[in-house]
Specification:
The complex is a heterodimer of chains A (752) and B (621). Chain A has 752 residues and is α+β, with helices and mostly antiparallel strands. Chain A folds into three domains: 9-77 and 89-303, Immunoglobulin-like, CATH 2.60.40; 331-489, no CATH class; 493-750, Jelly Rolls (Sandwich). Chain A contains 14 helices and 34 strands. In chain A, strands 1, 2, 3, 4, 5, 6, 7, 8, 10, 12 and 13 form an eleven-stranded mixed beta sheet that branches. In chain A, strands 23-24-22-21-28-32-31-30 form an eight-stranded mixed beta sheet. Chain A is globular, with a radius of gyration of 31 Å. With 621 residues, chain B is α+β, with helices and mostly antiparallel strands. Chain B folds into three domains: 8-234, Sandwich (Immunoglobulin-like); 239-409, C8orf32 fold, CATH 3.10.620.30; 412-620, Jelly Rolls (Sandwich), CATH 2.60.120. In chain B, the strands form nine sheets. In chain B, strands 5-4-9-2-1-11-14-13 form an eight-stranded mixed beta sheet, with no helix packed on it. An eight-stranded mixed beta sheet of chain B has the order 27-28-26-25-32-36-35-34. Chain B starts with 7 loop residues before the first helix and ends with a strand. Classes of the chains: A alpha+beta (752), B alpha+beta (621).
């Protein structure tokens, strides 16, 4: 699981609660239960919730969390019920989760934040052996500065969805003003069958505002196992046995200061104090080892990662034992596969693997016309892939073609460390092909991914697990062999954006004319591939590699049953091509952050989808407004603006205490040729030269003139994906230099 | 806001997101027929309007699933929807019914029913039949003719029995092929309108409300004498509409005591009436949050003043009622007033619930009327928001009413002024800056700043001022009147504008105006089909006094700009006085509506403005 923001705690808890809520259809009973829950929670004997002010030094913050507490109790009981064909015993899980928070509101933005609350009051899902009923109860009190307390009337709630299985509600919190304290709780009561998992808990001891008291309390019945881990200096649970031998876990942390400084490029799992905890239904029966089940009543602190790997491998075994994978190919890829099989002995292993990869990619993403779903085809370039699943199937396909490989498991480079995982979902996978390949790693990022793609989030991983899952029919995971490997990391130049621009004054001298060619490499490619490449073009280019002489439209037109579909598809393709101009315009606008007056001759010169030609190259002719100024007979050109929008770090963002975890190292390069108009000469070139270089990265511009041309070579490089916080000043140096260079100007002076 | 009128207007608003992926002509409506029949109902709903519509869609190019939405509410029930695909009833048809919320309305009884219309192949046909019933003809206010698709032909019939008095008022027929016919048939009159070859009408960014643009009928339900009942007067005249509003006002149930107590507390020690009103208005703006409930009759009847006071939230009606009650509590003449914002094309010459969508409080003071709209959170006393300027306003006056027009404010109400006093040091500019904002310019900025967390406010303001230029370095920032919306919002700071000067040999080039207001306000004349409505009339003034270095003189002074259009003016000039250069630029937007036919001229003038901006000062030394 990835957390985008270090401030996500409250959101995670509330959203999880609010999205999963539901089921009492009896409004009277709901109100009765709500009343008793309110009575219980408001009656907590916890002094932190009795606090009525924050220290004066916290007055500068928008709000101060006086107390925050997560209180969870989980229990289960055996039940028997009619299911399908007869009476079936099952275990019903009951879970009560309460998140309570008391917050002092210091300004209008905080008042707005707490003034309206939307939540799912009730949700019910049912199916064979799967019933989940969740009901959410809400309690809100407003405490005025004079100590007067007003509880929100539950009747003020309005239902915005009122269905039998789902009720959504909204409440406007009355009489809320700056200076007030809001003391509120969300209590989520869930009853569900044993086949569903209790979602994992994640609790951050980190916020952008001060927290005076933060606590977690779990009471977990003896039928459950509990796994937990504290990260990055977060406090450890104190454990004890409660009534009925329940496990009781507690954490208290006081006076957490407000987080300060930049949080750009952070890896919360590796940097922020947090606690994760899983509640699992234990199993010690016959199937316990097969399910890798945890023992009921056990507490597992800091489980070794092997446990989660085993969970992951069992999924492979289960998938294999379920049904045998059969890869059926469409005609184009199928015919080509036959040729490859026939010639494979004459091919190097590298070539063979690449050809198989291309066949798999074409068949999975392009040869998809059977459903005759035009929308699906048009949207195919931009679909988001389940990268783990696609990589797994790729590996199985390789095996079916007798190309053996390993599964490579690691965590994301911004996820938890490999030895700190707490879920099999923390592990992601790619393929490593056996046989001494130069580039053996095969992952998937998009439908345009080229062979030997190592996802950026795996780069530089230390001691990634490699697992030989053996043959397609092997389901005994004890026979899966494991070892470790360090994964390589790409260099900044490999993830590059190169902009080549021929620039001149337009016949309307207030405009700049730019012939632009953009070359995108490595991890920079996929976003623009998804924006600019049309399905039709991608299909057409690929089918030629497979020696298919006909376009998709031609093939479909040949078929009696597909002829009419071909006509429609042709219309849809034509329309998509027309709209493609808007995509190029959008790309140019987002790159230059300036008004584009005109765009023409836009095209993708190379899609960057083949290992022989892996760069994405596209070009266009543009006219840009606003970059040419006049002063008497001279022109002043805002040449620095041609490097597009640059990162600007200001105010609080310039301070940094956290290490930097960027997605990948990267570089930008601009080759700008500016044509000096006849009768003019250029001034101010020397001022363009700049060089800031340090271990973290660089920004440099070399400006020269040659005849009637100015040549600018500009480059910016982020040398590493990871930088220690101590290097932040070095990063600021070249980031600032690039930003400042965007104000660079040249002067064209009329000769004579 | 008062409750929205559930009609095709909502559908038209929803269209851009619903149909964004479809081409302009892939799906067309070949024919459509709508029948609106006034009929006798039962005791609780003596007159109802039965609505039947049938639309036949055609897929012209390629298969696609098209989303369709239909709106209803507590007063307009959705009776039946039948969908046929290629003449067969659609199997597994499961329309989704949901509450519909828009424009920040917290809760409304508006509901939307939506479903997907699956065209399985080119030339596929679909037919959607919908039956609805308006339970009270008061709520049946308009019939729109255009659709979110190209419409080949649509026939609209309004069937009015003789016992019913209804007037149909036509709007925006010009430019459309619409024929009309009225015939008598038995004891009913049948009004038939036929529209042909109408393009899809889709709102554009900042286009006016659909009632200004789309061809439609405003249905004025005046009176009824149903066969089995007595005569019912709806809105035969404006006095009837006022009487109905008045009857709702009488039902409010205000409790004067708590309101008076608060009003006295807030005006304690203030002698002057105007100052008292200012204090009350500011308090309501600051402390009452705008939260709109539009549920049934609550869409028209203001919430009790004491409830709004206690809850510290309310909709426009609740806030207006609290204001009026507070004024009354201190012995001033506070009244409720109804009006339609500029989103609505109608005035009170056509009595209808569609005429107004807003309520404010007015203070009648010795023949002077002050308009107090507390939903405008950061506007000053006696400053009037564009959306209500010039609008007809119905002011309560006991059993009678006053009909006035809200004054049209001078654009100078919204002045924003920036004045810089600078010197050149090396390649930097250095000096002091004063900026102030009035009226709706101030309201916009204060909205941004008050939604910002307290500890980040200065950072956010600096970023706003620097507009992404790290060389625009601000220090010693002083902020005035952040909390006093009745005063101009003002800031002062010291500026170091690094590398603002380009030095070449003995020449310096300097861009005096890095704000370049309106420079990006040109439109794509081919793409823009509808008028553009600016948010408010604007007045932006930017001035710089630049002291030249010793021995420096002006080498080239940009020529002046003067564009004086009846709807706007743009002026700029450089002046030299000894060693000081004064730059003055002023943009005055006198009219907020820019018609499509005005766009070429507007673009040309924006081009001239940009040419002026792009002309720099040259100094030699």
């Amino acid at each position: 699981m990835m957390i985008r923001s270090p401030y996500a705690f409250l959101l995670i808890c509330l959203c999880a609660a609010m999205q999963m809520a539901t089921a009492q259809t009896d409004g009277g009973k709901y109100h009765e239960t709500a009343e008793s829950i309110r009575k219980e929670i408001w009656g907590w004997d916890r002094p932190e919730f009795a606090r009525r002010s924050a220290p004066a030094e916290h007055a500068k913050y928008s709000k101060v969390v006086l107390a925050r507490r997560l209180d969870v109790s989980a229990d289960s009981k055996k039940k028997i019920a009619w299911r399908g064909l007869g009476l079936t015993p099952y275990r019903e899980l009951s879970l009560m989760e309460v998140l309570r928070e008391a917050v002092q509101l210091n300004d209008q933005s905080a008042v707005s934040e707490y003034s309206e609350i939307s939540y799912t009051q009730l949700e019910r899902r049912s199916g064979f052996l799967m019933d989940r009923t969740t009901v959410i109860y809400l309690g809100i009190k407003v405490i005025k500065p004079n100590g007067e307390t007003r509880e929100i009337n539950a009747d003020d709630i309005v239902l915005t969805t009122d269905l039998k299985k789902r009720k959504e509600a909204k409440i406007a919190v009355p009489d809320l003003q700056s200076g007030d304290i809001v003391d509120f709780f969300v209590a989520k009561q869930t009853n569900m069958s044993q086949l569903e998992e209790i979602p994992p808990y994640l609790f951050l001891f980190y916020d952008e505002v001060p927290i005076l008291h933060c606590s977690m309390h779990f009471e977990v019945g003896k039928k459950y196992a509990v796994e937990y881990r504290s990260y990055n200096g977060a406090p450890e649970f104190k454990t004890a046995k409660g009534e009925d031998n329940d496990n009781v876990l507690d954490i208290v942390k006081e006076n957490i200061p407000a987080a300060e400084g930049s949080n750009l490029w952070t890896a919360p799992f590796r940097q922020l104090p947090m606690v994760r905890l899983n509640i699992l239904l234990g199993n010690k029966g016959l199937l316990a080892s097969r399910l890798n089940a945890r023992t009921p009543g056990e507490l597992y602190k800091n489980q070794p990662s092997e446990e989660y790997l085993e969970d992951k491998l069992r999924r492979i075994a289960n998938r294999r034992s379920g049904s045998r994978l059969v890869f059926t190919m469409g005609k184009t890829s199928g015919d080509y596969l036959k040729q490859v099989r026939k010639n494979k002995n004459k091919m190097s292993q590298d070539s063979l693997v690449r050809e198989l990869f291309y066949i798999f990619r074409f068949d999975t993403f392009l040869d998809q016309t059977k459903s005759k779903d035009i929308q699906k085809l048009l949207e195919m370039p931009s679909i988001q892939l389940d990268e783990n699943l696609v990589s797994f199937f790729l590996g199985e396909f390789f095996k079916s073609e007798e190309v053996d490989g390993y599964m490579v498991y690691s965590t994301l480079n911004r996820g938890p460390r490999m030895n700190e995982i707490l879920s099999s979902d923390d592990l992601h996978n790619i393929i490593m092909v056996r046989g001494g390949l130069d580039a053996p790693f095969y992952g998937f990022g998009s439908v345009f991914t080229t062979p030997a793609y190592l996802p950026y989030y795996f780069e530089g991983a230390k001691r990634a697990l490699i697992v030989n899952t053996r043959g397609l029919s092997e389901t005994n995971i004890k026979k899966f062999e494991k070892s470790f490997i360090d994964l390589p990391a790409s260099q900044a130049y490999e993830n590059g954006r190169v902009e080549k621009m021929d620039v001149s004054l337009s016949s309307d001298p207030s405009l700049l004319e730019i012939k632009r060619k953009s070359i995108l490499r490595g991890h920079y490619k996929s976003e623009e591939q998804q924006r600019l490449i049309l399905f039709e073009d991608y299909y057409d280019a690929e089918r030629k590699y497979f020696n298919d002489p006909k376009t998709l439209i031609e093939k479909l037109s040949d078929g009696r049953k597909t002829k009419k579909f071909a006509e429609e598809l042709e219309s849809a393709f034509a329309e998509a091509r027309e709209k493609n101009k808007e995509s190029f315009l959008e790309e140019a606008r987002s790159f230059f952050d300036e008004e584009i007056k005109e765009i023409k001759n836009y095209k993708v010169d190379n899609m960057g989808v083949r290992h022989t030609n892996p760069d994405l190259v596209f070009s266009a002719e543009l006219k840009l407004d606003g970059l040419v100024k006049r002063a008497g007979s001279s022109y002043i050109i805002d040449i620095g603006k041609l490097q597009g929008g640059q990162l600007s770090l200001e105010g609080d963002q310039r301070k940094r205490t956290l290490d930097v975890y960027a997605p990948f190292s990267r570089s930008l390069q601009y080759d700008i040729h500016f044509a000096i108009p006849e009768g003019y000469s250029v001034e101010g070139l020397d001022a363009l030269n700049k060089r800031v270089e340090n271990a973290a990265g660089s920004f440099a511009c070399e400006a020269t003139s040659a005849g009637q041309s100015i040549i600018l070579k500009v480059q910016k490089s982020y040398n590493h994906a990871f930088e220690p916080a101590s290097n932040w000043k070095d990063m600021l140096a070249f980031i600032d230099a690039a930003k400042e260079w965007s104000n660079a100007r040249i002067v064209l002076k009329k000769n004579g | 806001m008062l409750r929205p009128y559930i009609s095709i207007v909502l559908l038209l608003l929803l269209v851009p997101c619903l149909f964004a992926q479809d081409s302009d002509d892939n799906i067309t409506i070949e024919s459509a027929r709508e029948i609106y029949r006034f009929a006798a109902g039962d005791a609780s709903h003596p007159v109802v309007v039965k609505q039947t519509s049938v639309a036949s869609y055609l897929c012209n190019k390629y298969r696609v699933a098209v989303p369709i939405a239909e709106f209803y509410n507590d007063q307009v029930q959705l009776d039946e929807i039948i969908v046929k695909i290629n003449d067969s009833k659609l199997k597994n048809f499961k329309p989704v019914h949901e509450f519909y919320s828009s424009n920040g309305i917290f809760y409304s009884d508006a509901r939307v029913c939506y479903f997907s219309l699956p065209f399985e192949k080119k030339w596929g046909r679909a037919e959607v039949s919908i039956q609805k019933t308006a339970l009270d003809p008061r709520y049946f206010t308009s019939i729109y003719f255009t659709e979110p698709f190209f419409l080949k032909k649509k026939e609209v019939q309004v069937i009015v029995p003789r016992w019913m008095k209804v007037e149909l008022k036509e709007f925006n027929f010009q430019g459309y092929s619409i024929s009309r016919q009225t015939r008598a048939e038995g004891d009913v009159d049948i009004h038939t309108y036929t529209i042909e070859n109408a393009k899809a009408l889709v709102p554009e960014k900042q286009s006016p409300g659909m009632s200004w643009l789309a061809p439609h009928l405003l249905v004025l339900t005046k009176q009824a004498s149903p066969p089995a009942g007595s005569q019912i007067t709806y809105f035969n005249a404006l006095s009837d509409q006022y009487a109905w509003y008045r009857s709702l006002v009488k039902q409010i149930g205000n409790d004067a005591a708590p309101v008076k107590s608060k009003a006295l507390e807030l005006t304690k020690g203030i002698g002057d009436d105007t100052e008292k009103v200012k204090a009350l208005y500011l308090w309501v703006q600051e402390n009452i949050r705008y939260i709109a409930y539009e549920d049934g009759i609550a869409g028209f009847r203001p919430e009790k003043a004491q409830e709004v006071l206690a809850k510290k939230y309310g909709d426009c009606k609740g806030m207006a009622n609290l204001m009026a009650e507070m004024l009354k509590a201190i012995g001033l003449d506070g009244r409720l007033a109804w009006l339609g914002t500029n989103h609505i094309a109608y005035d009170y010459s056509a009595p209808s619930l569609a005429v107004d969508n807003h309520m404010i409080c007015v203070w009648m003071n010795k023949g002077q009327v002050f308009y107090l709209d507390a939903t405008e959170k950061y506007i000053g006393f006696n400053e009037i928001a564009e959306r209500i300027q010039g609008r007809p306003i119905l002011i309560e006056d006991g059993e009678n009413y006053l009909l006035r027009n809200v004054p049209v404010a001078n654009p100078l109400q919204n002045t924003s002024l920036e004045k810089r006093y600078l010197t050149i040091e090396g390649n930097d500019l250095k000096g002091k800056v004063v900026q102030l904002w009035k009226g709706e310019s101030k309201e916009w900025l204060l909205s941004l700043l008050h939604s910002t967390q307290r500890d980040k406010l200065e950072d956010v303001l600096k970023r706003f001022l620097a507009a992404g230029n790290i060389n625009y370095q601000i220090s010693n920032l002083r902020i005035f009147n952040l909390q006093d919306y009745n005063a101009d919002f003002k800031i002062e700071y010291d500026l170091l504008f690094k590398n603002a000067v380009v030095s070449i040999g003995n020449e310096m080039f300097l861009e005096m105006d890095n704000r370049k207001d309106f420079s990006k306000m040109s439109f794509d004349a081919e793409e823009r089909k509808l008028p553009y409505q600016f948010s408010f009339k604007n007045h932006m003034v930017f001035e710089t006094e630049l002291d030249l270095p010793v021995n420096a003189k002006v080498a080239s002074l940009p020529s002046f700009l003067e564009i004086d259009h009846h709807a706007y003016s743009m002026k700029g000039i450089y002046k030299v006085n000894a060693a000081r250069i004064t730059y003055q630029r002023e943009i005055l937007l006198k009219n907020t509506l820019l018609q499509p036919e005005q766009i070429p001229e507007w673009n040309e003038n924006i081009g001239r403005l940009n040419a002026f901006y792009n002309n720099q000062l040259a100094i030699s030394h």
